[in-house]
Structures are given as C-alpha cells and as structure tokens.
User: Fold these one by one.
Assistant:
Number 1:
Amino acid sequence: MPGNSFGKIFKFSTWGESHGPAIGCTVDGVPSKIRIDEKEIQFFLNQRRPGSSKFVTQRKEKDRVKILSGVFNNYTTGAPISFIIHNEDQKSKDYAKLKNKFRPGHADYTYEKKYGIRDYRGGGRSSARETAMRVVAGAIARKILSANLGSNFLIRGALIQMGSLHINRDNWDWNFAKKNHFWCPDKKMLKIWENYLTQIRKSGSSVGAIIELEAKGVPVGLGEPVYDKLDAEIAKALMSINAVKGVEIGSGFASAFMPGDESSDEMTLNKGKVKFESNHAGGILGGISSGQNIVARFVVKPTSSILKKKNTVTKKLKKTTISVGGRHDPCVGIRAVPIGEAMLACVLADHFLRNKIFQS
Amino acid sequence: MPGNSFGKIFKFSTWGESHGPAIGCTVDGVPSKIRIDEKEIQFFLNQRRPGSSKFVTQRKEKDRVKILSGVFNNYTTGAPISFIIHNEDQKSKDYAKLKNKFRPGHADYTYEKKYGIRDYRGGGRSSARETAMRVVAGAIARKILSANLGSNFLIRGALIQMGSLHINRDNWDWNFAKKNHFWCPDKKMLKIWENYLTQIRKSGSSVGAIIELEAKGVPVGLGEPVYDKLDAEIAKALMSINAVKGVEIGSGFASAFMPGDESSDEMTLNKGKVKFESNHAGGILGGISSGQNIVARFVVKPTSSILKKKNTVTKKLKKTTISVGGRHDPCVGIRAVPIGEAMLACVLADHFLRNKIFQS
Amino acid sequence: MPGNSFGKIFKFSTWGESHGPAIGCTVDGVPSKIRIDEKEIQFFLNQRRPGSSKFVTQRKEKDRVKILSGVFNNYTTGAPISFIIHNEDQKSKDYAKLKNKFRPGHADYTYEKKYGIRDYRGGGRSSARETAMRVVAGAIARKILSANLGSNFLIRGALIQMGSLHINRDNWDWNFAKKNHFWCPDKKMLKIWENYLTQIRKSGSSVGAIIELEAKGVPVGLGEPVYDKLDAEIAKALMSINAVKGVEIGSGFASAFMPGDESSDEMTLNKGKVKFESNHAGGILGGISSGQNIVARFVVKPTSSILKKKNTVTKKLKKTTISVGGRHDPCVGIRAVPIGEAMLACVLADHFLRNKIFQS
Amino acid sequence: MPGNSFGKIFKFSTWGESHGPAIGCTVDGVPSKIRIDEKEIQFFLNQRRPGSSKFVTQRKEKDRVKILSGVFNNYTTGAPISFIIHNEDQKSKDYAKLKNKFRPGHADYTYEKKYGIRDYRGGGRSSARETAMRVVAGAIARKILSANLGSNFLIRGALIQMGSLHINRDNWDWNFAKKNHFWCPDKKMLKIWENYLTQIRKSGSSVGAIIELEAKGVPVGLGEPVYDKLDAEIAKALMSINAVKGVEIGSGFASAFMPGDESSDEMTLNKGKVKFESNHAGGILGGISSGQNIVARFVVKPTSSILKKKNTVTKKLKKTTISVGGRHDPCVGIRAVPIGEAMLACVLADHFLRNKIFQS
C-alpha cells in the first residue's frame, strides 16, 4: 500500500534519503538461476552518475552498489535481492539554509504539509537520488528479460528534444546516441545542444527535455487488461520519475491530428508472419504488446533548483525569495534517459513474469 | 494481480463482456454511512451513454444500473458495493463475420495471441463497454470526496481539441461545456466542430481528440511518494482508458520548451495563506497534491472501427481487407470525457483514503 | 486492501448480504482455455446447501448459480468470471426483532462499532451465506488444478470430531465419508453422532466440530517463503471461515508432545524417488509443498444462534436476554466441510499459478 | 506478490540469508512523527538473541541493529524505515558437509526442488535467522500502537507447554514470565522444565512447545471482513514463523467440546459499558476485535536439527544418514515467544491503520 514499491511479481522497493547514511533497494520476485554480476549493474549505474560531464551536476558520488542477499555463487536463488549504496560527498551544510524555505517546483511544501516533518537535506526522500535504485532494479529486470528473450531483446533511449530544440529524425543514429553525453541520436544536433546548454547554465536557468524509449524483441502478449494495460503501467512508471510531466505511447498526442484510416496500423504478412505496416500504436494494442517495438516518450520539466532568484514563502508563512546555488543539472532530462530505460525494463520484466500465468 | 481492478483502498473491479448477459462492478473500500442513490449514479452513466446525439454511436443501450449489495437504507455499510447493468440491443450477428479477422487498431490480434481464445463479439472484454463501469465507480468516488471535502470539491472535463481543431482558451466557459454534446468549452468552436465531425463521419473515417480535466478543492497532501505519486496514478488511470495514447499533467509536454525560471511555480501569500503564482505543475509537487487545481490532459486516438477498407489478416494468417460498418462513434474522444472525469475521481478518492493513515 | 478478496493471482472477491437481492463472486486470474460447466459448480454448491438433511438448517435456498462473464462457448477466456446467486426464502421479518440486540457470539456488536451502521437482517455481510461463494470459487480452483495436475490431484474432507465425540482413525473410509450427510469417515461413529446431534438440537443448544482436509497429488514447490508460506496461507484461508477458531497442519498441536527424533519426517527412496517415512509435516516443509499429501485440520465453534436464552445488551446499552429461534444448524461444522475443501483448493490454485514464475 | 513482505498498510519486507553479509528489513507505511530509538528496538532484539542462556543456541550473534532511513532527528518522516544487521560468527564451514544432504524437517529439499539452487549455508533464506527482522518490525509496530492507544495497550507472551509438560494456569504470573529465560508464567513449573530440557539436550533430541499471546487495550473495530479477518491475519502471521504447526484463537480447538450455550460469550454492562462475561472468542467476533483481550496460541514443533542420526537422501538421490551437530536450540519454542509477540504487534498495527479508513 505505501508507495515505495513498484511492480507486482517483479517487485522492487526502495528506501533511503539523499543525505542519510545510505540508499537501498530490494528486488523481489526474481526467478532463480539468473546470473547476476555486480559489475553489470554498476555499468548502468555509471550512466546515471553525477559528475560524468560538465553538463550534469558536479557532485561526486561514486555510487558503488553492493549486493547483500539473494545471489549465491553469482546466481539468483529466488530470494529477495538487496542492494545498498552508501552515501558520500553529502555536504549537508549546503542545505541547512533551506530548512525553513520551500523551494518552488520542489516537494518541500507538499512533504511538509503531508507529513508535518521533513528531512530538508537535499530533498530527503523526494530527492532524485532515489532514482539510482531504479537503475539498479532496471539492470536486474534486463537480466531476466535477456535470459528469457535472448539477444533480440533490447531497451534503449535517446534525448529527442532539449528546450526548444528538437532533433531531426532523419538523422537518427542509435550508435551515436550511445556514445555522447546527451544521448543525442542526431549527430548534427549535438554541437548545437552543447552551445545551447552552456548558455542556459551560465544564465543561471535550466531547460526541459523529451526522451524517447524503444524496446525491441518484446513478445506478443505482455500486459493485463483492463487496468494493468502495458501502456498504463508504462505511463505510471515514467510519470513516477522526478520532474516528469507527460508520457505518450506510439504516436501519442499527435494521434489527435490523424484521421482514423491512418492511425490504426494495418496488418499484412511477411514470410508467413504477421507484419504491421506502421507503428502508431507504439507496439501496444488493447493494452497488450503486439510484437512490434514498444515506443514511449516522456517529458522532463526544467530543473527547479536554479540560481535565478524566485519568490517563495517560509515554513512560518513569511514571504521571501530563494536562489538555489550548488551543483545542479541545467537539464535533468539528460540523466533521465537511463532512468526511463530502467523503468521500462522493470515494467516489461514484471509483465513478462505475469504473462507466464497464461502460458500452458 | 490480475488487471481488472483499480485502486488500493478505494478499489473497484469490473467484469463482463460487450455481448455477454451483463457487465458489472464491485466497489470495495467505501467508508460506511455515505448516502448513495441509484439516480445519482444513473445521472453520470447517462452522460456516457450511446445514442444521446447523432455524433455518437446509435446503439441503444439503456445502461440501467442496479445496486446489489453494500447499501442499506440508502447508506453504505462498509461492505462491497456491487453494481450490474444487463446488456441489451446486442446484435451479436453484426460481429459474426469478424470472428476470423483481426480489426486493425483493436485488441483482436493481441487477445488471440495472449489467451488463445477470444470472445469476438463486439470486442468482448476489450470493448469500451467496460468503461460504463468506470463511470459507476467514479460516481461513488465523487460521493466519498464530496462527503469529506464539501461543496468546494469539483471535477470537470472538457474537449479541447477535435482532430486538428483546437479551442481558443480565451473563450473558455465551463458552464457552456456542460451543456453541449461535445463538452466544448468554447462557444465559437462548437458549430465548427459539428460541421467538421459531420464531414468526417460521412467520409467513413474518424478523428482523435484531447480532453482536459480539472479537479478543484483537492486538499494538500494526496499522493504517496515515490511510485504511487498522484500524477503517476492519474497517468495510469487515464492511459488505461480504451484508445488513450498520452497523458500530461499541468504544462505537460510544453514544459520542455520553458526555461526553469518560468516552469517552477513561485509561491507567495494571500490573506495569510500560501498562494502559487502559476500552475505549471498542475497541482502536484513531488507526486503530492499542493492544494492548487489538479489539471490533466489525455489524448484519444481516432476510432479504429471505420467504414474505409483497411488491410488486415485472418486468424489463419491469410491477407484480407476489412471495413467495419455498424454504429460507431466518429470521435470516441467525446464519450471519453465522463470516463476521464470518473477515473480522476477514483484516483483522488483512493488517495484521499490512503492519506488518512498519515493524519493524526 | 479491503478484505473481501482472497488470493493474489487466482483471486476471488465476494459481495452480497444474507438478505440483499443477491450474492456474488468475481474470480480473476483464471488462465484461459479451461472448460467450465455451470453444472459442475452447482454440484459443489449443493453439498453446502441448507435444507439437505434434518441435521442442517431447514431454510430452503435453491442456491442456483449463474455465470455472467469470462466464459465463452464453455471455456474460460482469461477475463474475470462473475457469478451470481439470487437470494430467495429470506424471511427478513424473522430478524426485525434482532435489529437492536447484539447476538452473543455473532458479529453484531463489532460491526455496529466498526461501521456505525449494520444490515441486521440475518447477519448481513457477516452471514455464513457468503461462504456459498467460496464454494463457487473453490470449484473453479479445482478445475484449474485438475487441468494441470491430472486425475491424481484430489481434495477431500471429513468431519473427525463432533462435540466431544472423536472418530476412530482405524476405521477411516473416504468412500463412506462422501456418502453420508455428516462427512463421517468412520462407519461405526455415524449412528452415534446422529443420536448425539438429535439430542443437542432438542435441548436447544449446539455443538462444535473438527474437520480434516487432505490434498493429494500436489506437486513439490508450491508456497512462497517467508510470509506467504503455503501453511500460513492455508491457516488464513481456513481461519477466515465463519466460526473457525483454530487451524493445524500435519501433526499440529500434537507436535508439542513429540521428541525431535520423531517429529521430523525421515527421507528415503522408493523406486528411485524421494519418499518420506511419515507425514508429521502435513506435506509442507519451510512453507513449501513437499509432494506428500497436504493435511490440515480446523475447528468450528458451536452455532451461536441457539434457542437457549442468553444475556446480552441492546444497541442503546440496556441489559436484556435473547433466544434465537429460526432454522439454525445444531452443528455448523458439518456444512463447513465443503467450504474448507473449497478454501484449500483456492490456496493451492493460487500457489500453483504463483509457482509458474519460478519454472523455466 | 513475492512472499517476503507482511502487511498491507503497515508493511514490512525482509531480506537476507543466514550466512550472507547481512540481513535487513524495510518497514513501510509508518505514520510520521513517531519517536524511534535504536535502543528500544535493540531491547526486543536482545530477547530473541541466541546465546542468552544455556538453554538456547550458543551461537554468538550480537544482532546489533542499525537504522538506515526514514527516521530524522529521532522521528519517523513517513518514508520507509530500513534496518540492517550485519552477520557475524557465521562459521560457514559447519554447513559445508550439508551441501548435498537434505536435513529432515527442514526446507532443504523443498527449496532445492522449487528453485533448482540453494544457499545451503545454515538454511540460507529459510533459516530462522530471518525472524530477527520480524522482531525489529514488531518493535516499530508497538511504537505505532502505543503512540495511538496509550499505556493501556500491551502485548505479552508466555510458554505454556514444553514437550509434554503443561503449566498450571492457576499459578499464572505475568511478572514472573517476563523474568525467566523460558517465559514461564508458572513459578512451580520453571525448575521442572529446566531439568526436563537439560535431559532432552543431553539425549541429543529436542522438544516442542506451545506459546500463548495476549494483547490488552486493543480497541473495538480492528479487522476487515471477510477474508482479512483479524483472526485470519493472526493465523497467517503466526503460522508463517519457522516450525509453527498450529494456531488457535480464544478457546481454539477446545471449542469443539463446548456446548453452544457456553461457547458464545454473553454480554452485560459494567458502569454503563459493554462487558463480556467470558472470552472464549479470544477478543474477536466476526473477524473484528471486540475490545476484549486478544488471545492466541501457537505450537512450535521440536527443533529438527538434532544430534540423533536420522535417515535421509542426498541431492543426487542416494540414501544416507545425517546427524546435525552444531549449536542448536533443544526447544526453539522458547525463542519463538518474542517472535510471536512481534508478529501479533505487526498484525494489530496494520489493522489499526487500516481501520482509520472507516473512522470519520
């Protein structure tokens, strides 16, 4: 019931505050006999890690993950897998002055009102630091999926819009996207974004972004009608990421503009197998995966912690202003790419296991 | 675990197929001593009912709801409330010819693959007929919320885009929206939409739509971090509605374009109370309601069942074409308005009750 | 969250009051392509039905079950299966005089205090009438198990103690147990019990009973450590039946008396397969089925509704007395046999499906 | 869905193996602003700790608990509370020889068959070491209950039977029970039990026990009909403890022997308040607490790890024998007392919070 868990069969629960001694995650529902390697998990964690380029926060967190249970001689045993990352470089003092002020765009005010008490250090539980654990869970989810679906299965993500600058889809290159610090799939856009973001950062402001995710090699049949539809679960998963304000599947909001004879993907055969002639549905029909690529997009609002002075109020209800210095990302959307991938992996792993019930 | 339920404390479960003897819903987790009237529920159901204007399907379903349990002398007892609507005017024969063909854009193919068996009559379980029960559950949810939050509490919705035609927000009139069959809040747009949709219908095609929902009078504190955030739950709730392809909260996808100094809503005081100077967040901060209006939008794709001939395949994997006659909505988005309102009400009622745990 | 559902994957939810228009049940999580026949379900329902002999209540309820969804051409579709039984022979007037008095041993007082409102007619939601729906769910559960485990799988139950009279286990005859109205497995005991119960009934009192359940053909591996152990789930399932006050597995409470070298079942081989030399564990080790027969026992307290006058208080807190006439069972334990079997079937079906996650 | 969690609102999840680096627990659903002190939790843990007397295992585990999240300046924040105990004194070598043999009465065989892989060191996940975390969760549960119910609220337990030796209830002294290492409430029995257990231990065998639990000061109204009845949840909670084979509430199995005019507790008034004249129901009516003391009993089978040689088989299906040396409890029932108390506290805390939904 409490909201710190995700998934039903593949289920992970996270705990920990930004400036507590550690953060952690327990992943339950993992089938036995799946090979798990701390290094593989660390690989994904490093993608999200702060301090990796000048365009993301300069906090130095090693984010070294440690497995505490559920893995025996490198294989899962069916028991819950517990992970821990000890917090470092916390600089709690940075936050002391924010103890009595509510940062606009953050959860400070709502946590204070809901709980009557608030760990104000770096956002406490509401900090995006929690997302490190989503990446860990996602790494386990990918292992389950790969072990079952083989090498055709793949999840990947790219940044397709930064602020007002959208990539050109004609230039899309997944290999390129993997190699640059912006997850930018458009070679021609990379330099433009770099200059743009440098300016934004210098101006003391920030900018939003749109991320596109794709899952290949997903079998037909994942998703449970009618409330746990695959797209409904993906929407929840992505919307639960800090700063996300919208999610769409396939053609998404553009579907409104299409006539019905275009928006429903026609079906034909290719070498005796069902083939769809387009993918406006984003790989999901009636809430169930169709075997096409799953395509989802989500928008991340601009970082709320910025240097520019903003109006706010104090805990004791006095007017004041605030300017949040420190080491914040000018575009948190960048680091949201591996988090989005992880959440998509978790939804798919959960539904892959759920679907086993219906296989005879 | 199975996907036919929604909510955790305020929890409803639906059952029934489009052309079975009846459809139904059980609402559990309703506090006792709340006055329930079949007529009030019927009022909401009638808003969604087919056959109400020439712009929606001409199927005639009385959709007469009956309460079977959980209400004693017009008050809830704390026991589960069971509802039933007997199906009428089913014309199952219309669908017999679709037995062996997969309708593009529908769940026919994915259900067949997932379950190996399919009630092909009118979509069976995947039919939007199921949404009648969401409206019933939503009516109960509203009763719980009104009983606790008083008359300030209000949920309403409007169609803001039909096909490529967007309303003018400057003309927004909620009273007008309630009175027309399009839920159109812009008096000047109504006639234009009518002509537009008449043309679409005549051409044998269909069109998508965008709906905007608003909840007023929601207290601060609803929503459970970090995975059951209020916006994450709203996203799931709306995305689970048939034909929905995208959901956004507050400024949504437009957040990508905003600079950070604009997108985070500044705070000030008004008569000693906290007041936000804008509402880009859509009333939710860190996944918890802030006391501002909750604002959500969702997109409904064009009706997939259209007269225009489309390519598809048969169950036995032969190429064929299909043209779906019958009595379908040219814009299913219209009837999605009361369904969206209902789902929003259910999420809020669930979180209103969940939040009680933290109130001392 | 609310308590009207049982199971996680194979999940059923019941609704309805003793004297409302109907009672019902929705079974979700049933795999597709399982043959379902109303007659088979009715067969189990008839075993529990009142009025079947002079030793059980003479209320005449036909208890005719009707399937409303989830079954198409006699096979399950994977959609929720909804059942309804319309209430008959309600004689609500019998209960009007009990409106303001709390019957000792019943839920009248606790429901009144918990909910502040109470459907006093025949116990309302707390009536054992609800258990008819457990029997329906159990019938579905058996179908799932039989379809997967074959004809070796079997669940059966017997009454082993009535009041102070215990059967002689040396006389155990399962075939005999099935044929008599007491589910008595001891031919020599039957006549004694008949005389005994006739006396009890005439004296205006009632008597308790102990039931033993056995499941054969259960594969190794069902049950989820550490909180959803198979025995823990069985304990919950049986204890949730009206009037049950205790549950034990295998040697149960007698384990306290045994030395450790006797109580743990030694293992050996039989034709190359693992064989246990005894079954004190009742077929469950570490919460997981061992392949031996599952053996569980539960005790049902004497019927609380008796003719003998008892002290009680009124709703307005005045002292009074009560004598419950009407048509009550002198030993409700008898009719608890098919209910216990049904609950055991539901637990096993749920865990059979849950265990699929771990099968590769 | 996976079985490593308990509770719905007050929900705890445990992880960790007997001989892994640590064991841990995350408690979610704890209301904010409750004072938590590591020392108080340690107090309860110490009651369960091995090595505390010659009658329990001589393994030396400090069992030092550490809070990692959810508590800020000694108060709960509403965020999940994570606990860890680092394992010490593991002596894994003791278990190496058991790698290929199944210990009778243990989960070795069933885990091997269910998961196809097994952490054989000390039972791995199936070890009773996990119960340390139940005690931690129970300590938090007590804090929630005490904070809300005041000093009248109390949970306590006693050993009432060891092997074949039952206490004399006439000698019952709760204060005495608290002070001796057997939780024996009967001063005259203590010496007898000491001699008895010394003999059992020397003979290389073990013995079972029955524990009685009592909760005082529980308000009327806890428990959710009809499947999450308070007694059903207690049954599940206690049966999930390692080695437990039976649970009963109030008069339990003895109810079978009682006539109906005795077994239902009559009601009267005392100073204008409802008073029950007996407590055969064990404080629960219709699955809801009645305001009387909650009384539950459970039986713990004799320790299965004993010196006496027993028949068993190897992983490769050869016959063999086994004698489990090491440092095992001759009567594990003794250390089950604080575990049983903890589980009862968890059930009550969960239902206390669940009941808030119905309070207006």
Number 2:
Amino acid sequence: MSGPGTLYGIGVGPGDPELMTLKAARLLGHAGVVAYFHKRGHQGHARTIIGAHLTRAREELPLEYPLTTEVPSQDESYAQALTSFYDASATAIAARLAKGDDVALVCEGDPFFYGSFMHIYHRLSGQHAIEVVPGITGMQACWTQAGTPITYSDDVLQVLPGTLSEEALVTRMRVADALVIMKLGRNFAKVRRALTTVGLADRAIYVERGSMAGEIVLKLSDKPDDSAPYFSMLLVPGRGRCL
Amino acid sequence: MSGPGTLYGIGVGPGDPELMTLKAARLLGHAGVVAYFHKRGHQGHARTIIGAHLTRAREELPLEYPLTTEVPSQDESYAQALTSFYDASATAIAARLAKGDDVALVCEGDPFFYGSFMHIYHRLSGQHAIEVVPGITGMQACWTQAGTPITYSDDVLQVLPGTLSEEALVTRMRVADALVIMKLGRNFAKVRRALTTVGLADRAIYVERGSMAGEIVLKLSDKPDDSAPYFSMLLVPGRGRCL
C-alpha cells in the first residue's frame, strides 16, 4: 500500500490533441484511472481529445451529467440535480484515491477557466492531494485559427458570456479594447445587436469549432444567420499601436 | 531547393518547460533556425524555457531589443526605435525563410496575447507561410499555482494592465466578476487603491513568478509593500455559484 492517490485536474486543451501540454501527456500516461464528464449518449469532448494518447488500457470513470435536455439554469431543480451529481462524482473519485489510485480528471480547455472541475476541486481539496495542469483554452484556439492577435500592449481584454442582458453587454463592451464573447447559442442575435450599438460589429470575427474538424472562421458581417452551436465564439481583436 | 520556409510563432508557455504543448515541442525539434527576443545581457525568457528542449545544435537568431533602460512608452523616440527594430527583425527572419529554412520564433506565453510576435506577424503575413501555436499564458500559470479557479459559469473576466489611470481601473473593475491585473511594477500602489475603492482588495491574490523558481503566492492583504517585479500579477477570482 503506497498511501492515497493524487487527483490530477488536467487541462487537455481546445480540441487538437497536439495542443495538450507535455505535462498533461506525461501525467495521463501514468494515471491509473481516467475520469471525465460527459452527457448521455456522448463520449464527452475531453475524452475524445485524449483518445490518441491512451495507449494502454486503464480504468475509466465516466461522470454523466444528469441533464441532457436544456433546463433553464436559473431553475432550482437544475441546481439541485447538479449539486447531487457533483457530490456523487466527488465521492466516486475519492473512493479511487483512497484505494491508492491516481485519478486524472480530464477537462477541455483549462480546468480553472469556466469548467466543471472546480466543483470537484472545492469538494476534495484539503482532504486529498490535488494537482492542476493548465490547458490551452478554446478562446486561444479561436484567435490562433482566426489568425488574429487578440491583445496588444495596454489593451483591456474582456471575456463576456452571451447570457448577459443586452444592456449589461453594452456597458461592458464600452470599456474594453478587445473582446471574447462565449456562450452564444440563442444569445447570438442579442450579442450582434450589442456589438452594433457600440460600433464594434465591423471588427468582430466569428469562429466555430476552432482547431477542430469543421472549423469555420468568418467576419461577423459575412455571417447571414444568427445560429451558433456550442463550440463557437465571437472575437473583437484589440488594435494596439502600430510599431 | 525545397521552396521558401515557414515561420512558426511558437508559444512556449509561462516558464515551466513542461507546460509547452506537444505541437510546440514537435515543431521546435524540426526548425532549422530558432529566433527569440531578448534584452541586452539577458538570454530572454522564451529562450530559457526551451533550453531543455534544444537537443541538437541549430542556428539561433537572437533579436535584441534596442532599449534596455526604461524609456516612457508614450515617448515618440521609443516608438521609433521599436519600429526600426521590428523592421530589422522581420527582415532578418525573412532572409532565413527565403533561403528555405523554417524559423521557429519562440514567445513566452501565447504569441497572440500581449506579445512582440504580432509586430513580426503583421510585417510578414501575406508574404510568407506563417503558423502560430498557442501557449499557456502567464495568467494561467498564476491562477493554477494559486490554487484558485478564476471564472465560473457566467462570470465576466477582465484582463487589465496596471498602466491604466486609477479612475479607468475603478470603472472597469466595477463591471467585472473576475480580474487579472498585469503590468504591476510601479503601478502597484495605484492598483491596490483601485481594488480597495471597489471593495475587491480582500479577495485579491498576488502571484510572483508563477510556475517558476522563486514563486510567491500571497493574499494581497498579506503583502506589506508595494513592490512588484516584471513576472507578477494580481488575481481576483470570480465567485460563481456553489453547486
């Protein structure tokens, strides 16, 4: 018995398996158990990304989200279902750690940047050894694939969720030099209106599935419709100073 | 003759050489020429990071910044000197590309996120093949090492340069849920006052040399002085929702 295991919260990057760090790949190679979040009927993005790196069989611990249809996230039943789910997930992971296994919980992007990982982290830190490995975020894949530097020199960057009200979006857009807008989906038309109001629509770039198969990069002004799937973002690059 | 070479703008991450991506390591292994920015008398952070990965000799192309003492960046002579420097650097890189060499220009963090790389990128894109590889940013190293998730769910993240006026800092801090504040240096006392004004000083975390030797992580309230070297940041993590 070598004592309890370590939980590794591993950022596996935005999609391209080569955009994982050397550290992530090394730890993934050693972990006895690989855990990942997923929706029913889907393998999950993080598990898909690491597929090519899992060169030997090991125990897998899939953590299936309880909600597959969209329940409004303001709904109390949504919060309760997720709380129970994270409780159960943390318990399942803790059981492996207690057995002495190291567990790699793989996360798309960066574990500490808008992820589900923190809900496990808050439940287990202090009681178990935890190490976090940062990963390339989806927004970085988007600005890289769009071929556009996002920030220069003294630019202010804002990362905004499209879920904000139109007024809240406009208020924040007015005090930014560069923008990343996520969670578009049904918010797309509202976000476009806000960008138009502040005079930034002409500079905005739409990126869908950055660094993945089926990637799309368009000027917002060239996008005729207002549909936007899960893996999509709008970017407004800063303009910095020409040197 | 195999045709002109490709310029690779390679993000090598924040400091720990293992936080480079697999793609960065692979491309670095193949490039005929390795280029990097540095100040006089210093090797440069990016060159230091890749040291362990340069397993065979190859041509190095150091690009030395013309200013080693701090000239106010608003100064016209500063802008002129840098413009000439980037012109000359782009010309030197283009000469290697024309010879058929691939050139890896290594950049700390992510090439498109507050970097010098874009000044080369803007000069050479359209005329040469360029591929950019994103890298883990310094701010990601800082929040990882501080053990603090930075953003949850619908949080608004702002990345602010400490160079802004106190009033501009306060205006932006008021409409953010999470903050990353860079370029502290002589701006530290001003940034601390702004955080105090908006009631965020108690939540702020100071990180120096995240993921490097000599790392320091402190609550801002535990930091007695107002000194802050180049590799330092303040973080105000979002609070999201407890699930």
